[in-house]
Design a protein that fits this description.
Layout lengths: L1 H37 L3 E3 L10 E5 L7 H13 L4 E5 L1 H5 L3 H7 L2 E3 L2 H9 L3 E4 L5 H4 L14 H9 L3 E7 L1 H4 L4 E2 L1 H6 L6 E2 L10 E4 L12 H30 L5
Parallel strand pairs: 1-9, 2-5, 2-6, 3-4, 3-5
Antiparallel strand pairs: 6-9, 7-8
Helix pairs in contact: 1-2, 5-7, 7-10
C-alpha cells in the first residue's frame, strides 16, 4: 500500500509540473501577443543600456495588476543580448504559474544585498522602487510617482553602477484601479486586491529608456552614504517623473 501511495504521489507531482510548465508556456505566448498586437508596444532608447558591465534600470510601476513588470522584462529580454535580473516582491513568487515563470526569467527577491551582489558580478538589474504603492494608487492619481525606496541607490553607490531611468506608459489605462476589496484580500492573504478590469483593456503602451545617470563615489561613513543614497534616489525619481510627463505630452491626448 505504501508503494501505491508513493507511485501516486510521484505521478501527481509529475502532472503538477507538467501543467505548470504548460501554463508558463501559455503565459509566454500571451505576453508576446500583448506586446506585439494588443498593446502595440514601442520600445525607445534601448541604446542607453550598456552592452556589458553593471547597471541598474529603474522604472515606474503602475496598473492595478502589475502586468507592466512582466511586459518590461519580456520586452527587454527580447531586445537585449544579455541577461536581466528583476528584483520582485515576495508576493510574485507565491503566484501560481506566474511565480515560477518569473523566477525562471531572472526574478530575484527584493534585497539591496542581492542587487549589489549581482551588480558586483557585472550584471544588469531592473527594479521598480515604488513597489506595490505604485499599483495601489487610484486612477485619478495615475502617473504620479509614489515615493521611491532607496535600496536601488544604495546598491548603485556600493557597486559604482550607473542608474538608467525608464518610463512605462499605458499600464494605467489598461488596468485602472477603481477601488479595493480589502475583505477578500484578507481572506486570500494578499496585501491588497484591486477592483479593476479582470482582463487588461486595450491601450497603446510605450517603454522609454533614458540616459545613464552616474552614481556618486561611495562616501566614507554610514551617515554620508545614507545621505548620498537619498539624494540619488530623489534625483532618479524626479528624472523618471519628468520622462513620464514629457512622453505623455507627446503622444497622449490632453486630459479634460
Amino acid at each position: 500500500m505504501t508503494e501505491v501511495f508513493d507511485v501516486a504521489g510521484s505521478e501527481l507531482r509529475f502532472l503538477r509540473g507538467l501543467l505548470g510548465g504548460a501554463g508558463q508556456e501559455a503565459w509566454e505566448r500571451l505576453l508576446e501577443w500583448f506586446i506585439d498586437d494588443y498593446f502595440r508596444l514601442d520600445l525607445l532608447g534601448l541604446e542607453n543600456i550598456p552592452a556589458e558591465g553593471p547597471a541598474v534600470v529603474v522604472s515606474n510601476h503602475s496598473g492595478a495588476w502589475g502586468l507592466d513588470a512582466f511586459v518590461f522584462q519580456k520586452a527587454l529580454a527580447r531586445a537585449l543580448r544579455r541577461p536581466l535580473s528583476v528584483l520582485a516582491a515576495p508576493l510574485v513568487f507565491r503566484l501560481p504559474v506566474l511565480g515560477a515563470y518569473a523566477a525562471r526569467k531572472g526574478a530575484v527577491p527584493i534585497d539591496p544585498r542581492v542587487g549589489t551582489a549581482r551588480l558586483n558580478d557585472g550584471e544588469l538589474v531592473a527594479v521598480f522602487p515604488e513597489g506595490i504603492s505604485g499599483l495601489e494608487k487610484p486612477y485619478r492619481d495615475r502617473y504620479r510617482l509614489q515615493p521611491f525606496s532607496a535600496g536601488f541607490a544604495v546598491a548603485a553607490i556600493s557597486s559604482g553602477a550607473p542608474v538608467i531611468p525608464a518610463a512605462i506608459i499605458g499600464a494605467e489605462e489598461s488596468s485602472p484601479k477603481l477601488g479595493e476589496m480589502p475583505a477578500l484580500a484578507r481572506l486570500l492573504d494578499l496585501p491588497y486586491l484591486p477592483l479593476t478590469s479582470p482582463f487588461p483593456l486595450p491601450s497603446k503602451w510605450q517603454i522609454v529608456i533614458g540616459e545613464p545617470m552616474a552614481a556618486p563615489a561611495r562616501p566614507e561613513g554610514i551617515r554620508a552614504r545614507s545621505e548620498a543614497a537619498r539624494r540619488l534616489c530623489v534625483e532618479v525619481q524626479d528624472t523618471v517623473q519628468e520622462m513620464i510627463d514629457r512622453e505623455r505630452g507627446r503622444w497622449a491626448p490632453p486630459e479634460g
